[in-house]
Amino acid sequence: MIALTKIRLTMLAVLAAPALLGACATTVPMNEPGQITEETRAMYAATVDNGIEVPAIEDKYLSEYNKRQLVDYYAPYRAGTIVVDPGGKFLYHLQGDDTAMRYLIAVGAQGYGFAGEATIPFQRDWPYWTPTANMIKRDPETYGPVRNGLPGGLENPLGARALYLYKNGRDTLYRIHGTPSPWTVGHATSSGCIRMFNQDSIHLAAEVPNGTKVVVLTKEQAGKWTTPPGEAVASAETTDGDAG
C-alpha cells in the first residue's frame, strides 16, 4: 500500500510538471459565467464509471465550439471510421452523409510521430499504464519510479478509456485515450499520444467496435475535409513548442 501511494504521488507530480504539459499558442477559450449551456455542462458533468467517480470538466476548459458535437465533415471513408486531425486538435468519428461526431483532443509530441492508417483491435476501460523504455531512458527521474506501471484510476495518464492503434497486426504504441488533466485538452503538449476529456473518451469508446479503421492526418493536413470538395480550407493555426 505504501509503495502504491508513492507511485501515485509521483504520477501526480508527473502530470503537473510543466515540462510534460508544455504551453502552446492555441488554447481552449476561457469562458465567462453563463457562456456554457446547461446541456454542455450535462455532457461533461461528474459521473460514476466502473465504480470510479469521474470529476466534472470545469467551464473554463470548455466552449460551445469545442464541445463534443455533430459537424459537417467530408472525409472519403465509410461511416464508423475515425479520422484524427492532430494539427486541427480534433478527432472525427464518421457518421455517414458527410457528418461526423467531433471531439476536442490534445496531441503530444509522440502523437505527431504516426500518420496513416491503423485499426483498433481492442480497447480497455481504465487501462493499466506502463511507460515505454524510451520514456524511461529520456527522463529516468520522472518515469523511473513508475517503470512498473500504474493501475487504472484517476491518476493514470490513460484516463477512463484507451483505444489501441495497430498497423499490419503490430502495436504502433499509439493510443486514443482519456486524461486526468483536462486543462491539456485542446493544447499541444510535450507528452502523450492522442488524449481527450474522460467523458468524451467514454462516449467514443461506447460507439467504436473492435476492428474500427483509424486515419491519422499529418500536422500539415490540419483542417482537411472540413469543407466540401473544391472549397479552400482555411489555414489552421498550429503551434510550436512540443518537446520530448
Count of domains? 1
Strand order of the largest sheet: 3-6-5-4-13-8
Oligomer: single chain
Structural class: alpha+beta
CATH class: Mainly Beta
Quick rundown:
Belongs to the YkuD family. The chain has 244 residues and is α+β, with helices and mostly antiparallel strands.
Structure description:
There is one protein chain. With 244 residues, the protein is an alpha+beta fold. The chain has one domain: L,D-transpeptidase catalytic domain-like. 17% of the residues lie in helices and 24% in strands. The chain is built from 5 helices and 13 strands. The strands form 3 sheets. The chain has a 6-stranded mixed beta sheet with strand order 3-6-5-4-13-8, with no helix packed on it. Pathway: Cell wall biogenesis; peptidoglycan biosynthesis.
Write the layout of secondary structure elements.
Blueprint: H1 2-16, H2 38-43, E1 47-49, E2 52-54, E3 69-72, E4 82-85, E5 90-96, E6 99-104, E7 106-107, E8 116-120, E9 123-125, H3 133-138, H4 140-143, E10 161-167, E11 170-177, E12 194-195, H5 198-207, E13 212-216
Parallel strand pairs: 4-13, 11-12
Antiparallel strand pairs: 1-2, 3-6, 4-5, 5-6, 7-12, 8-13, 9-10, 10-11
What structural keywords apply?
244 residues; alpha+beta; L,D-transpeptidase catalytic domain-like; six-stranded mixed beta sheet; five-stranded mixed beta sheet; 13 strands; disordered C terminus
